[in-house]
């Protein structure tokens, strides 16, 4: 049986490339696009997740009544949800308020964050519509 040096080198190259690809997994796809309370008025933020290794980018919406400040929403995301995100940078790109009325199936997105500034509320509405397809979602830049 003859030794095929070039065949062995190709096999080694394939194994190395396979390991490189699997080590570049960011797990961005596993992060939910929207995590908010289902009723009431509360502060929310948009978070941008950038993965330099894979080139992936995702914007997510987070907001809970239990947090008084926008920064608390971001801190929660960083400490709890981002543990599975590898090789990525997180940015709080802005915030505002969400008023969601489950009984009337209406959502209003408005205002801004003193910490992070205003964000694209129309994008927030698009994200919310994906998760609340039966709800009417409106936005404006009024108020705090």
Architecture in CATH?
3-Layer(bba) Sandwich
Give me the Rg, rounded.
21 Å
Q: CATH first level: which class? A: Alpha Beta
The domain tally reads 1
> What do we call the CATH topology?
Pyruvoyl-Dependent Histidine Decarboxylase, Chain B
Portion of residues within helices: 25-40%
Task: Spell out the helices and strands N to C.
Answer: HEEEHEEHE
What percentage of amino acids are in beta strands?
25-35%
Order of the strands making up the biggest sheet: 1-3-2-4-5-6
What is the end-to-end distance?
A: 78 Å
Q: Structural class from helices and strands?
A: alpha/beta
The CATH homology group name: Janus/Ocnus
For the biggest sheet, the summary is:
6 strands, mixed
Poorly predicted regions: 6-22
Mean pLDDT across the residues is: 86
What tags apply to this protein structure?
globular; six-stranded mixed beta sheet; single chain; alpha/beta; 6 strands; Pyruvoyl-Dependent Histidine Decarboxylase, Chain B; 144 residues; 28% helix
Would you write up a description of this structure?
It is a single chain. The longest helix is centred in the N-terminal third of the chain and has 19 residues, at 5-23. Mean pLDDT is 86; it is low at 6-22. The chain has helices at residues 5-23, 70-79, 121-131, and strands at residues 34-36, 40-51, 57-63, 88-101, 106-110, 136-139. Strand 5, helix 3 and strand 6 form a beta-alpha-beta unit. The protein is built from 3 helices and 6 strands, in the order αβββαββαβ. With 144 residues, it is of the alpha/beta class. It has a 6-stranded mixed sheet with strand order 1-3-2-4-5-6, with helices on both faces. The chain has one domain (5-139): Janus/Ocnus (Pyruvoyl-Dependent Histidine Decarboxylase, Chain B).
